[in-house]
Amino acid sequence: MMTVLLIIQLLVSAGLVGVVLMQRSDGGALGIGGGGGGMMSSRGAATVLTRSTTFLGAAFFALSIVLAIVAGVDAQGRSVFDEVEDDAQTLDLTIEEDTSTPSLPDER
What we know:
Elements: H1 2-22, H2 42-74
Helix pairs in contact: 1-2
């Protein structure tokens, strides 16, 4: 179920990015539809794109909440460290003390 929701979330987010990029910006420098003479009239395109953006944004928000809930329900309350085997091989990092006294190098 989680995989299906993630794929739907990916498709919705890609659609949302595409719809936002097609909208006309105020500065005229952003978006694909920034110039005049598009396929649709500017009024009709704005209405369709605005409604599409609203729908896709709401779907993205709702899917994000559903994914968070599903991930919380599927969680078993265990840590990654709980899965480490107790008899795992360990390294001995103890330092053995040298009982001999240090000496200075011979001066010539």
